[in-house]
TrEMBL record, chain A:
PROSITE patterns: PROKAR_LIPOPROTEIN. Subunit of the oligosaccharyl transferase (OST) complex that catalyzes the initial transfer of a defined glycan (Glc(3)Man(9)GlcNAc(2) in eukaryotes) from the lipid carrier dolichol-pyrophosphate to an asparagine residue within an Asn-X-Ser/Thr consensus motif in nascent polypeptide chains, the first step in protein N-glycosylation. N-glycosylation occurs cotranslationally and the complex associates with the Sec61 complex at the channel-forming translocon complex that mediates protein translocation across the endoplasmic reticulum (ER). All subunits are required for a maximal enzyme activity. Its main location: endoplasmic reticulum. The keyword Cytoplasm does not apply. Gene3D superfamilies: Glutaredoxin. This is Oligosaccharyl transferase subunit ost3/OST6. Keywords: Endoplasmic reticulum, Membrane, Signal, Transferase, Transmembrane, Transmembrane helix. It comes from Coemansia spiralis. The lineage of its organism: Eukaryota, Fungi, Fungi incertae sedis, Zoopagomycota, Kickxellomycotina. InterPro entries: OligosaccharylTrfase_OST3/OST6, Thioredoxin-like_sf.
Automatic annotation (TrEMBL), chain B:
The gene is STT3. Pfam families: STT3 (PF02516), STT3-PglB_core (PF21436). GO terms for cellular component: endomembrane system; membrane. This is dolichyl-diphosphooligosaccharide--protein glycotransferase. Residues 489-507 have a biased composition (Low complexity). Pathway: Protein modification; protein glycosylation. It comes from Coemansia spiralis. The keyword Aminoacyl-tRNA synthetase does not apply.
Length: 328, 774
């Protein structure tokens, strides 16, 4: 959990003051100069700037700081997400809000590893708010606090609402318009249109149509019945790792799954259905008796094997399930 | 050809067999739903059924008029609830009718037993309706298989065990039956069947909110047929009859009212109704205008009308004339919607998306017979098959988004699985097609084979002959494969009989001469292997269904059971103990506050006034209750007194390890309260310093001071000797829990339900804290 109570934040700031003891006059203009260097007005801090301009409670402006590790070598995915969201909020504030009231800043582990170590910060990213302690925007309790990073506060709207209510202002995020997406969509629509037109002109739809529709329908139904939407909504990892370090394809619980499970299960279902179709439509039409017998038995065997596999996987997912087929 | 047995022709024998098999299927369907009654007792289950049961009792005791105008002042205190106008009365009226009919015949049945056994009884009807649906789309074999599947599929049993007296119990029967009538009315173009469809639809509307599925799927079917260029007068008659009568009838239900005229859920039906009138006019105009002119006219008209209609619909929706989709339906399309906007919908576990084991759990092998069934439907693609395909697409999507909608997927899976399985049976169960000994006969058979292709078996005697065989094999489903062996033996005897039916296997004379015995072996052996495999699969399906039903779906949840280490069963009956305590020991007008989950049970079993219940129509009121639970003792006392609360009831599982207790639901209460009172209740305050949801001494102050925490753990550590652990959460118990404004009134045997009395104001006007210190 990334949550840290208000108490934690308090002791954190206290430690900062005690351990560093820096108490020079804080300066808004220094922060703003740093912010100007950045395209989204997100001031990149080092230890000195942090100690001097952010920590003191007597300052007359508020600072919102992310403690993060953006360098690719740390492979911190939530850091990148937080950074992206914070930048939209910072841009929005810069455009619509009072730049002298709130400054958005970022503290990377590369610039302040020493500080991170000293403060025993083990979990990143974190989003800290250092409210103003003096001046017109001062808060009664100017001690720094941490904003919990939950699903709804990781969206630009959620974060600005939360920050706004914390600091008593209205913040409007500046969400970039995704032109690329629109362009891609237009192109895709055009391509689809052109494809449809060409298909209409060149291909005998009456012949092709039914099979195409059948394949599309069956694929859709297979995806749906093997948990595709669950993956889409819950976004699980593609596959997992077992205790020994080898790859685990299945979560051993009933209501969880890896993304790869959907693919495996959908393919297994498809093979089973295919066996039935071949057994009914194709096998009986084979002329030679030997071949017919062979094909029939082959596909029955495949069907039984596939279903046994499904069954064994289901036993794995549901301990205590008493029935088994060929496989354990 | 016609052999008479006991004076019955082959056709009569076949229909007799069919009836017998359907009867057996019905028996199995009812029987497998009775585990809960046998293990526990004839009791109403869960939560919503208690409301249905209570209203049914009211209907039986007070008559229909009073029921219709019932204003229930004991629910949602102090708001009350207009019961007659806010429920689907179908299930209550059904039970009351059955009850009255039985009493008319001097059969004195208790209304509770009528309610408990209603869902199993209707499941038998569902199986029969599924048989007719299967027969409508293929033949009797497919119908019987589909009925057998439907009778035992856990996806449907989950909602229809004895005691689960809920709308779905009768609604699935109505769903299947309406679809069957619809398909028949399209096939026959009969206004009579169209009207019957509408009546069945009306019954469905009166029974379940899921009727929206019908009123969207049927127009979609019509639209798809129109788009495929399959307009016919049959379709026109069927749909026009159905839509007009069905819509007018559905508006008679007060809860539905004028919705069919202005909500988005019903617009597709209206639009298609308009469209089919235009298409009908066009096809009439076609008889008057030259062909080539007409084509251009038609295409232009259809496209422009569709565009105009759709944009008009969008415009009207956006301007607010047509009500937008309600939250529940909207969350089906935009899957992230409920999570952000309607926590009360997202908080219900059955509204979560479905992982694949759930499908396998509920449908087992049917789930991979479904794609095969879709394939066979595409091979034939009559009007009926278009419907099956559309149904399977939409039901599959909905089921994958919401666990509970596996229920609507189950019928189509059963029907299509029945179709697929019947194809297998028809191909491999025909053991009579042994290559005949003389070449003359061989040529006769092979020339007859294409004519008697299995899809177009029209000749009565032949098809019935086949039906006998097939039904026999369907019953083998229960006879555990004995039937297959028997018919194999029979087939071997009758090998010389060269009836010209269903010869799917070509019988060409092999170039190198085989002995007749070897030839027969070549034909029979693979068939025998295939059939025994499938018989085994069917048996396994039945075992699976019984096991799932018995282990997963037969717990009443009002009464619980647990097993001791020596295998002995303990029945845990704390809920009823608490409710009966309330019923017997409190004033009849006492107000009991609890979380909404227990509202219906309180009203049904304790017969006391509740503040909120499972009809979650008023979010603010629920949030107020959440706020009372989440506030500190003094605030809660103040609020509780303002709402005239006499008793507070909490469910507490730490003693037994019952994980569905209020402390585990508490975060949802906090979230819902926070949605309405963001200034007073904050979710973060309920996590401790480490950001965990703790209950013991390291819990956050807000958590430790909250009413819910105090009521749950009051005196619990004392009883456990001070060192016990919370069995649900695996944490240490909080040591000092004080309670001044509430006093413990009753705690059940296993501490699962705790009831507290809200203290009266102090006689001397002191606060209760001061009084207790004194």
């Amino acid at each position: 959990m990334r949550l840290l109570g208000a108490l934690g934040a308090l002791s954190f700031a206290g430690q900062l003051l005690l351990s560093c003891g820096v108490a020079g006059a804080q300066s808004l203009s220094e922060l703003q100069a740093l912010a100007k260097k950045d395209g989204d007005s997100l001031a990149r801090l080092d230890i000195e700037a942090f100690m001097k301009n952010v920590v003191p409670e007597s300052k007359n402006y508020a600072v919102v700081v992310q403690l993060t590790a953006l360098s690719p070598k740390y492979k911190c995915k939530p850091c990148v997400e937080l950074d992206k969201t914070l930048r939209t909020v910072a841009r929005g504030w810069n455009r619509h809000g009072d730049k002298d009231q709130i400054v958005f800043a970022s503290m990377d582990v590369e610039d302040g590893e020493e500080l991170f170590h000293k403060m025993k910060i083990e979990q990143i990213p974190r989003l800290m708010v250092f409210p103003a302690g003096a001046g017109p925007h001062a808060l009664a309790n100017a001690s720094p606090r941490e904003m919990s990073l939950k699903e709804e506060t990781m969206t630009p709207e959620g974060m600005s609402a939360k920050l706004g209510s914390l600091l008593g202002v209205a913040i409007k995020p500046d969400i970039p318009v995704n032109y690329g997406k629109y362009l891609r969509m237009t192109l895709a629509v055009q391509a689809a249109g052109a494809g449809a037109y060409l298909a209409y002109k060149l291909v005998n739809l009456r012949m092709l149509g039914r099979n195409l529709w059948a394949i599309a329908t069956i694929m859709f139904v297979l995806l749906m019945t093997s948990g595709f939407m669950w993956n889409k909504i819950n976004d699980p990892p593609y596959m997992g790792q077992a205790k020994g370090g080898e790859v685990a394809l299945f979560v051993p619980t009933n209501n969880q799954q890896f993304a790869v499970e959907t693919q495996i299960v959908a393919v297994t279902y498809a093979v089973c259905a295919l066996c039935i179709v071949i057994l009914v439509r194709h096998a009986p039409k084979i002329q030679s008796a030997d071949q017919r017998t062979f094909i029939t038995l082959l596909f029955v065997a495949v069907l039984m094997l596939m279903f046994s596999y499904l069954n064994s996987v289901f036993r794995l997912k549901m301990p205590g399930y008493p029935f088994k087929l060929l496989l354990e | 050809m016609v052999k008479k047995v006991l004076g019955l022709t082959v056709a009569d024998q076949a229909s007799l067999l069919r009836i017998a098999i359907l009867g057996l299927i019905s028996l199995v369907a009812i029987g497998s739903r009775l585990y809960s009654v046998i293990r526990f007792e004839s009791v109403i289950h869960e939560f919503d059924p208690w409301f249905n049961y209570r209203t049914t009792r009211y209907l039986v005791n007070n008559g229909f008029d009073k029921f219709w105008n019932w204003f229930d002042e004991t629910a949602w205190y102090p708001l009350g609830r207009v019961v007659g106008g806010t429920l689907y009365p179908g299930i209550m009226v059904t039970s009351a009718t059955i009850y009255n009919a039985l009493h008319l015949l001097n059969i004195p049945v208790d209304i509770r037993n009528v309610c408990v056994f209603l869902a199993p009884a209707f499941s038998a009807l569902t199986a029969i309706a599924t048989y007719h649906l299967g027969k409508e789309v293929k033949n009797a074999t497919a119908g019987l298989l589909a009925a057998a599947f439907m009778g035992v599929a856990p996806g449907y049993i989950s909602r229809s065990v004895a005691g689960s007296y809920d709308n779905e119990g009768i609604a699935i029967f109505l769903l299947v039956f309406t679809f069957f009538l619809w398909l028949r009315s399209v096939r026959l173009g009969s206004a009579l069947y169209g009207a019957l469809t509408a009546l069945s639809y009306f019954y469905m509307v009166s029974a379940w909110g899921g009727y929206v599925f019908i009123i969207n799927l049927v127009p979609l079917h019509v639209f798809a047929l129109l788009a495929m260029g399959r307009f016919s007068n049959r379709l026109y008659v069927a749909y026009s009859t159905f839509y007009v009568i069905g819509t007018l009838a559905s508006m008679q239900i007060p809860f539905v009212g004028f919705q069919p005229t202005f909500t988005s859920e019903h617009m597709a039906a209206l639009g298609v109704f308009g469209l089919i009138q235009l298409v009908a006019f066009a096809s009439f105009a076609r008889t008057l205008v030259p062909e080539n002119h007409f084509r251009v006219l038609l295409r232009g008209a259809v496209v422009s009308l569709f565009v105009v209609g759709l944009s008009g619909l969008v415009l009207l929706t956006m301007s607010g004339v047509i009500a937008p989709w309600t939250g529940r339906f909207y969350s089906l399309w935009d899957t992230g919607y409920a999570k952000i906007h309607i926590p009360i919908i997202a908080s219900v576990s059955e509204h979560q998306p479905t992982a694949w084991p759930n499908f396998f759990f509920d449908l087992n092998m049917l789930i991979w017979l479904l794609p095969a069934g879709i394939y066979f439907s595409f091979r034939e693609l009559s009007d009926n098959h278009v419907f099956l395909i559309l149904y399977s697409i939409f039901a599959a999507y909905f089921a994958s988004v919401m666990v509970r909608l596996i229920l609507t997927l189950t019928p189509i899976v059963c029907v299509l699985a029945g179709v697929a399985m019947s194809h297998v049976f028809e191909t491999y169960l025909n053991f009579r097609d042994v290559p005949p000994s003389s070449p003359v006969k061989a040529s006769a058979v092979s020339s007859a084979a294409p004519a008697a292709d299995k899809a177009q078996r029209a000749a009565d005697t032949v098809s019935d002959d086949v039906a006998v065989e097939d039904t026999d094999s369907a019953s083998g489903h229960k006879k555990r494969g004995k039937g297959a062996k028997k018919s194999a033996a029979k087939a071997a005897e009758a090998a010389t009989d060269t009836s010209a039916d269903g010869a799917a296997t070509p019988s060409t004379p092999a170039p190198n001469e085989l002995s007749p015995g070897l030839k027969r072996f070549y034909t029979i052996f693979p068939k025998f292997v295939v059939m025994s495999c499938f018989m085994f699969l069917l048996c396994m399906f039945q075992w699976h269904c019984s096991w799932i039903t018995s282990t997963a779906y037969s717990s009443p949840s009002v009464v619980l059971s647990s097993r001791g280490p020596d295998g002995s069963t303990f029945i845990i009956d704390d809920f009823r103990e608490a409710y009966y305590w309330l019923r017997k020991n409190t004033k009849p007008d006492a107000k009991v506050l609890s979380w909404w989950d227990y509202g219906y049970q309180l009203a049904g079993m304790a017969d006391r006034t509740t503040l909120v219940d499972n009809n979650t129509w008023n979010n603010t009121h629920i949030a107020t209750v959440g706020k009372i639970m989440a506030s500190d003792e003094d605030t809660a006392y103040e609020l509780a007194r303002r709402h005239d609360v006499d008793y507070v009831l909490v469910v507490f599982g730490a003693m037994l390890g019952y994980s569905g207790d209020d402390i585990n639901k508490f975060l949802w209460m906090v979230r819902i309260a926070q949605g309405v009172y963001p200034d007073d209740i904050k979710e973060e305050a309920f996590y401790n310093q480490q950001g965990r949801y703790a209950i013991s001494d390291d819990a956050s102050p807000a958590m430790r001071n909250s009413l819910m925490h105090k009521l749950s753990y009051y005196r619990f550590a004392e009883v456990m000797g001070g060192r016990g652990t919370d069995k649900v959460r695996g944490q240490k118990l909080p040591t000092s829990v004080t309670l001044d404004n509430f006093e413990e009134a009753y705690t059940t045997e296993n501490w699962m339900v705790r009831i507290y009395k809200v203290k009266d104001l102090d006689n001397l006007g002191r606060s209760h804290h001061a009084a207790s210190k004194f």
